[in-house]
Amino acid sequence: MSVFDTRLYDTAPERYNPSQMLLPEGKMSTYEGEEWMELYRLAMVELEHAKMSGRIDSARSEIVARVAKLQTMPGLHSDERQAIRDALSGLRALELEESRYDADHRRLVLNNTSETLRSIAPAILKKQNEENSD
């Protein structure tokens, strides 16, 4: 199965969900119930930009903890390790999009503030002139 297979996607191609990767026998992954997977899902579906960074950090921290735990467990766990690599890649892409949004949002706020200041500047100058002439 290729990562480009549409069955691997939640609702949009940019929201790849490694937990939906099927094993060769057609069974769902054994790591489906792991905490890192749930936190990854929450990060990928978060719509509030104010919460996005925290969701990404939480997922990443849990993934690091899971990788450390996998080091102590017998077996290769290759399917889960691949899903973790895919999840980390998805989190990096999400983080990049979030940073672009933040930059665009800051630019918009600065533009709106500048426009507001330009619109009230004549009234402020008039008031200052009146105070200076008194």
Gist?
This protein is mainly α.
Helix-strand blueprint:
Layout: H1 35-45, H2 49-72, H3 78-133
Helix pairs in contact: 1-2, 1-3, 2-3
Shape: rod-shaped
SS summary, helix count: 3
N- and C-termini, Cα separation:
82 Å
Q: Give a count of the beta strands, DSSP E runs of length 2 or more.
A: 0
* Average pLDDT metric: 81
SSE string, helix = H, strand = E?
HHH
Estimate the strand proportion. under 5%
Structural class: mainly alpha
Give unreliable regions as ranges. 1-16, 21-26
- The level of helicity is 55-70%
| Biggest sheet architecture | none
How many domains? The number is: 1
Report the C-alpha radius of gyration, rounded.
24 Å
Structure notes:
The protein is built from 3 helices and no strands. The protein has one domain. The protein has helices at residues 35-45, 49-72, 78-133. It starts with 34 loop residues before the first helix and ends with a helix. By secondary structure, it is mostly helical.
Q: What key phrases describe this protein's structure?
A:
134 residues, mainly alpha, single chain
